[in-house]
Structures are given as structure tokens and as C-alpha cells.
Design a protein that fits this description.
- The protein is of the alpha+beta class.
- It has a domain of 51 residues.
- The chain has 2 helices and 3 strands.
- It starts with 10 loop residues before the first strand and ends in a 16-residue tail after the last helix.
């Protein structure tokens, strides 16, 4: 881990695109400003970890896979009832 000392209004550059600016220091914490391109996601650690957990849970869900060709044939055939749609996983 790189440790850098900065004072208010000083900044550091990461990867040539992201600038982290110290906006203020109080007894409760440090206020940081972050300038980054729109395509760079910036999250607090707890938010990032929550997103990652949701992504892992969604990837692990056993959602039934339907045959797209069979669904299309059934919907185009006159007088036939299309197969039932898959239900989303429980828990949401």
C-alpha cells in the first residue's frame, strides 16, 4: 500500500485519469473529491461490496433456460398455446 500525506486542496493523480482532491479535514474524517471519466465507476467500499454480493447471488441463481426457437414456433402457430414463461427466482 502506498501512503501519501496531503493537505487540504492538494491532490493526487491515479492512472493519469483519476484525480483525488482533499477537500477538508475535520475531527470526524477527511472529505475527498474525485474527478474521473464517466466510464470509471467510483464507489465507497461498502457499496462496492454490496454490489459484488448481489452480482454473485444473481450469477449463482438457477434460472431456467428456455428454448427461444420453441417459444417462437409456439407463438406463431395458430391455435396453440405458448409454453409457460419461466418464473424469476424467489427472494426478490
Amino acid at each position: 500500500m502506498l501512503v501519501i500525506t496531503r493537505k487540504p486542496e492538494q491532490s493526487l493523480i491515479i492512472g493519469g485519469e483519476v484525480e483525488v482532491i482533499v477537500l477538508g479535514i475535520t475531527k470526524d474524517g477527511v472529505r475527498l473529491g474525485i474527478k474521473a471519466p464517466r466510464e470509471v465507476q467510483v464507489h465507497r467500499r461498502e457499496v462496492f461490496e454490496a454490489i459484488a454480493a448481489e452480482n454473485r447471488a444473481a450469477a449463482a441463481a438457477k434460472a431456467p433456460v428456455q428454448d427461444a426457437a420453441a417459444l417462437l414456433r409456439a407463438s406463431l402457430a395458430p391455435g396453440t398455446k405458448p409454453p409457460p414463461q419461466a418464473k424469476p427466482p424467489k427472494g426478490r
